[in-house]
Amino acid sequence: MLALALVAGCKQRSEYYRKMEIDSKALTVRLLEPFPGLYFGASGAFYFKFTSAYGRYTIDHFEKADKSAKSVRYNAFFVDPQDRLITRSKYHELLHGSFGTVFARTTYFYADEYGEKWTDFETAPYMNDVGSEPPQVMVEPPGGLPRTLSAVSVVRVVRAAPEFLIACANYAPDGHLESLSVHGARGSDWIHTNHLGSAARGFQAGRSIGDRPETREQFGLPREFPVTSYQLKRESPFASTRYPRVLDAVNFHYERDRWVEQDIFPAEGLPSRRYLAFKVTPEDQALEPVDRQRLFGQFPYTREGISR
User: Fold this and answer.
1) What is d(CA 183, CA 258) in angstroms, rounded to the nearest whole number?
2) Residue 179 lies in domain
3) CA–CA gap between residue 168 and residue 179 (Å, rounded)
4) Which helix (H) or strand (E) holds 33?
């Protein structure tokens, strides 16, 4: 009976708050100034808390320019019942078109259950409405920001069943290949790899850690990224393939993806360069001393080689 009573008392609930505080030493969070009621539809910044039946909860940091605007999501936190951080995720928009949206996804791991803590980083397409942050697009590098290279990624979009295939590779700052991914898109949005069917013949769909030569070569992605020579010449690092090309992109991610130098090589027309900057929130600043000590987007065991 007691167990049944405890389960009955653990109900899912949603709440909205104006402010959030993070203790960067204890890695705990506190939400302040709750909004009355279950829904907050006004403009400005707010924090949406959703508590599961088991006590763990999520916090999404949103901002809306006005009541009718789409919400921008800066951070997605996962927190345990004792208010201790488990993970934090960010989705930064890199490319958008008839093939859907390609994101740079960063996931920070804080809980002791993860053992040796690190930061996962991946460039890949995902559903358009995942909850993300669009960039501030500039023609010059953002002034006053450090220029520490954290990662390099490449994106190739080709025309193939189901409508588009999007192949991505992520590299360490020295050009070492860390991961690959291949996804499909149809109707201007990502589709799950389970729905690729026969379109996925000859390559590994979804994400792969380390090198998969058959997949990488099928899409003309470099085994190692030539960081130094590329910065000097800015020549496309992609090889030709049998697929009709839509566009290729090279991204240099600085300061753990706080800003990006992006070169786009379209199928028709001249290459172009632009710079993408993303907001640094108070929560980002609070966790900066912890995050900067962690390996970013690298898998040490890939240095020994994964090839199958």
Assistant:
1) 25
2) 92-304
3) 8
4) strand 28-34
Tell me: do 58 and 114 sit in the same domain. Answer: no
pLDDT, position 118: 85
Tokens coding 235: 């020549």
Give the phi and the psi of residue 49 in degrees, each rounded to 5.
Answer: -110, 130
Q: Is the pTM of this model over 0.85?
A: yes
- In this structure, the answer to whether residues 240 and 267 fall within a common structural domain is yes
Q: Are residues 118 and 58 in the same domain?
A: no
Gyration radius (Cα) of the chain, Å:
21
The secondary element (H helix, E strand) that includes residue 103 is strand 100-109
Q: Are residues 33 and 139 in the same domain?
A: no
- Over the chain (308 residues), what is each successive 10-residue block's mean pLDDT? 43 88 97 79 86 93 86 97 97 98 97 85 96 96 89 98 97 97 97 88 92 96 97 96 97 97 96 97 96 91 64
Q: Would you list the DSSP string of 43-95?
A: SEEEEEEEE-TTS-EEEEEEEESSTTSPPEEEEEEEE-TTSBEEEEEEEEEEE
123 touches 106 (CB < 8 A): no
Q: What is the pLDDT of residue 307?
A: 47
The answer on 247 and 162 residing in a single domain is: yes
